[in-house]
Amino acid sequence: MGAPFRHTLLLVEDSQDVRELMSEIFQEYGLRVIAAVDGLDALAKIENNVPDVVLTDLRMPNMTGLELARHLRAHPVFFDIPIAVLSSIVPENLSTATEIDVFIRKPCSVDYLVKTINQMLLNVLNGIHAQRRQAARRALN
């Protein structure tokens, strides 16, 4: 039996092949992965399993990655979870999308993807993420 997972990643991806591959990769790097097929599925799955970080595709059926991010930011428990969006398409409103913390353009290397998620987790552990979220909230008011 391997070591217990220390951190949980919510992976939201509508492509089954990509979702399974990315789940395997992140599990190999020691993350517990909650996999969801779209934003609605993600919201249902995290009610009893709060993730440490979210990695979501942008374009998905039922609820997009940005819609998911807006729901999470409005939720009293999930509002401060770091969110990364992974997409081949850069959204028009990316510069004003304060709901997301990191945008990762597809295609990207596995190394870059893992390093980015690890940096997001380190930011949470070091309190940097909370400072950035507070600054974003102040900017909106």
Task: Outline the structure in words.
- This protein is α/β, with parallel strands linked by helices.
- It has one domain (7-140): 3-Layer(aba) Sandwich (Rossmann fold).
- The chain is 42% helix and 18% strand.
- It is built from 5 helices and 5 strands, in the order βαβαβαββαα.
- The protein has a 5-stranded parallel β-sheet with strand order 2-1-3-4-5, with helices on both faces.
- 27% of the residues are buried.
Q: Report the helical percentage.
A: 40-55%
Please, what is the CATH homologous superfamily? Response regulator
> Describe the biggest sheet?
5 strands, parallel
The span between the termini is 49 Å
CATH C-level: Alpha Beta
Rg for CA atoms: 14 Å
Write down how many β-strands occur, each being a DSSP E stretch of 2 or more residues.
5
What oligomeric state do the depicted chains represent?
Answer: single chain
Give the ordered list of helices and strands.
Answer: EHEHEHEEHH
- Write down the domain tally: 1
CATH fold annotation: Rossmann fold
Name of the CATH architecture? 3-Layer(aba) Sandwich
InterPro entries: Bact_response_regulator (IPR050595), CheY-like_superfamily (IPR011006), Sig_transdc_resp-reg_receiver (IPR001789)
Protein name: Response regulator
Organism: Herbaspirillum lusitanum
Modified residues (4-aspartylphosphate): 57
Task: List the topology elements.
Layout: E1 7-12, H1 16-28, E2 31-36, H2 39-45, E3 53-57, H3 65-74, E4 83-87, E5 102-105, H4 110-125, H5 128-140
Parallel strand pairs: 1-2, 1-3, 3-4, 4-5
Summary keywords:
141 residues, alpha/beta, Rossmann fold, 5-stranded parallel sheet, 5 strands, 42% helix, 18% strand, Sig_transdc_resp-reg_receiver, CheY-like_superfamily
